[in-house]
């Protein structure tokens, strides 16, 4: 598995140096940018595989960078920011970020988040969505037949549960916000839809994770949304 090229967008020299040192020690390739304009130039010129993005840059807000970069690439974007409010996380994720890491952070967590998107890169979600089946651990989804299996046994899912499952599998490793999911499932984002989403997600999780000691497929990000985890 070849390590990806990482674009580090961070105006704080000490944090940027820490990330660079960490990536170098683990044999990752990287390039850096101290502000938004340099980040967009590096992203368009070098076509990196992953972006670490600070939101509080001197020349533009990180949300604007996400939106501009998303106009031409689907590369994973991991936000690294001192903004801790759920509203800020949701804005970044809704704009197209894949994950959110709050400062201060440990290098172990940084590397763990990178490994998650690295697995997603090698899984190649675009290819998975065009194929007729998806596999993750003991879970199999047959998109063409419109059914799902766990340990070889067909799961009896409601239409909403199946739509939720396919949305999660087609975005494996990515945090999907409540707003994103409800827009995709119900074409709206009313408070009642979020309440309904929690109910349907709970019933789906019971079917995917019948044993408490078994693998966890769905990760809840409280106040933000949900993520489908890669199960080895």
TrEMBL record:
<keyword id="KW-0238">DNA-binding</keyword>
<dbReference type="InterPro" id="IPR036388">
    <property type="entry name" value="WH-like_DNA-bd_sf"/>
</dbReference>
<dbReference type="GO" id="GO:0000156">
    <property type="term" value="F:phosphorelay response regulator activity"/>
</dbReference>
<dbReference type="GO" id="GO:0032993">
    <property type="term" value="C:protein-DNA complex"/>
</dbReference>
<dbReference type="GO" id="GO:0000987">
    <property type="term" value="F:cis-regulatory region sequence-specific DNA binding"/>
</dbReference>
<dbReference type="InterPro" id="IPR001789">
    <property type="entry name" value="Sig_transdc_resp-reg_receiver"/>
</dbReference>
<feature type="domain" description="Response regulatory">
    <location>
        <begin position="5"/>
        <end position="118"/>
    </location>
</feature>
<dbReference type="GO" id="GO:0045893">
    <property type="term" value="P:positive regulation of DNA-templated transcription"/>
</dbReference>
<dbReference type="GO" id="GO:0005829">
    <property type="term" value="C:cytosol"/>
</dbReference>
<keyword id="KW-0963">Cytoplasm</keyword>
<dbReference type="InterPro" id="IPR001867">
    <property type="entry name" value="OmpR/PhoB-type_DNA-bd"/>
</dbReference>
<keyword id="KW-0902">Two-component regulatory system</keyword>
<protein>
    <submittedName>
        <fullName>DNA-binding response regulator</fullName>
    </submittedName>
</protein>
<keyword id="KW-0804">Transcription</keyword>
<dbReference type="InterPro" id="IPR011006">
    <property type="entry name" value="CheY-like_superfamily"/>
</dbReference>
<keyword id="KW-0805">Transcription regulation</keyword>
<keyword id="KW-0597">Phosphoprotein</keyword>
<feature type="modified residue" description="4-aspartylphosphate">
    <location>
        <position position="54"/>
    </location>
</feature>
<feature type="DNA-binding region" description="OmpR/PhoB-type">
    <location>
        <begin position="131"/>
        <end position="230"/>
    </location>
</feature>
<dbReference type="GO" id="GO:0042802">
    <property type="term" value="F:identical protein binding"/>
</dbReference>
<dbReference type="Pfam" id="PF00486">
    <property type="entry name" value="Trans_reg_C"/>
</dbReference>
<dbReference type="Pfam" id="PF00072">
    <property type="entry name" value="Response_reg"/>
</dbReference>
<feature type="domain" description="OmpR/PhoB-type">
    <location>
        <begin position="131"/>
        <end position="230"/>
    </location>
</feature>
<dbReference type="InterPro" id="IPR039420">
    <property type="entry name" value="WalR-like"/>
</dbReference>
């Amino acid at each position: 598995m070849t390590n990806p090229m990482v674009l580090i967008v961070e105006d704080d020299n000490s944090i940027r140096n820490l990330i660079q040192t960490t990536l170098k020690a683990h044999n990752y390739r990287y390039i850096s940018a101290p502000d938004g304009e340099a980040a967009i130039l590096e992203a368009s010129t070098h076509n990196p595989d992953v972006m670490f993005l600070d939101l509080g840059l001197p020349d533009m807000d990180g949300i604007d960078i996400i939106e501009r970069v998303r106009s031409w690439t689907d590369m994973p974007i991991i936000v690294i920011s001192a903004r801790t409010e759920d509203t800020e996380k949701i804005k970044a994720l809704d704009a197209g970020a894949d994950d959110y890491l709050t400062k201060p952070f440990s290098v172990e967590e940084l590397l763990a988040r990178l490994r998650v998107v690295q697995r997603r890169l090698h899984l190649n979600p675009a290819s998975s969505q065009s194929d007729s089946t998806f596999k993750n651990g003991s879970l199999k989804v047959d998109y063409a037949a419109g059914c799902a299996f766990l340990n070889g046994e067909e799961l009896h899912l409601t239409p909403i549960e199946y739509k939720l499952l396919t949305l999660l599998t087609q975005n494996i490793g990515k945090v999907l916000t409540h707003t994103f999911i409800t827009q995709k499932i119900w074409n709206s984002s009313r408070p009642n839809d979020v309440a309904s989403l929690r109910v349907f997600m709970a019933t789906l999780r019971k079917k995917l994770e019948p044993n408490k000691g078994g693998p966890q497929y769905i990760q809840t990000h409280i106040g933000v949304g949900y993520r489908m985890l890669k199960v080895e």
